[in-house]
Design goal:
By secondary structure, this protein is mainly alpha-helical. 82% of the residues lie in helices and 0% in strands. α2 (9-28) runs antiparallel to α3 and α9 (124-149) crosses α11. It is elongated, with a radius of gyration of 30 Å.
Length: 213
């Protein structure tokens, strides 16, 4: 009888509904206006939903016994719900904020979400290789930038770390990055350097023309 109740589709839908409602109430608890108007109701509703979650986990443990503790998703449910049962004090006040992790129980309840998470975990090795390639490319160009522009523009390319940061900002925010990350007088300095370069080129041309004459 208990096994049929635990595995029944209506029970699953009921738990999904409670997870969604609990996520909304936990979000409302961050609003001073909502807490001033409905604080006691929200806190009571949170305790009631938590009690139902605990009863559901106990029922699943009774039905599945050892198999419950061999299932990673069941252990995740136990961890998420168990956090809310730990008494919160000043030293453990962060646990109160972790109650929102109960919303992640949707992953364990909805099979399609479990497949997505399993796919992401399976793709981690390939994603790691891509990340390593990106780091290598950024490192190469950061070294090049430091060698080429470190002396003339130390604010942006003075060290490898600064060069990598400049390249990253330019990549993410494109043309807006210089306006955001560059020092206040860097544009004037670059303009002065260009003017000096033009003057040197003009002087070189005059010298060449004098030698030809």
């Amino acid at each position: 009888m208990l096994a049929r109740l635990v595995e029944h589709p209506l029970t699953e839908r009921f738990i999904i509904t409670l997870i969604v409602i609990n996520a909304i109430t936990l979000g409302l608890e961050t609003s001073p206006t909502a807490m001033a108007a409905y604080g006691p109701f929200l806190l009571t509703l949170d305790r009631v939903i938590l009690s139902i979650f605990v009863a559901e986990l106990v029922a699943r443990i009774i039905v599945r016994r050892g198999a419950f503790f061999r299932d990673p998703w069941s252990l995740f449910d136990l961890f998420v719900v168990g956090i809310a049962l730990v008494p919160t004090s000043e030293g453990l006040s962060v646990l109160r904020a972790l109650r929102i992790l109960r919303a992640l129980r949707l992953i364990t309840v909805v099979p399609s979400l479990r497949k997505v998470v399993a796919g992401l975990v399976g793709a981690m090795p390939g994603m790691g290789s891509i990340g390593l390639l990106l780091v290598l490319v950024y490192y190469v160009f950061a070294v090049m930038g430091t060698k080429l522009f470190g002396e003339t523009n130390p604010e942006l390319f003075g060290t490898i770390g600064t060069s990598a940061y400049t390249l990253f900002q330019d990549e993410v925010t494109a043309a807006e990055a210089p306006k955001i990350t560059h020092p206040a007088h860097s544009d004037e300095r670059i303009a002065d350097e260009l003017a000096g370069l033009r003057a040197d080129i003009a002087a070189l041309r005059r010298e060449m023309m004098t030698r030809k004459a």
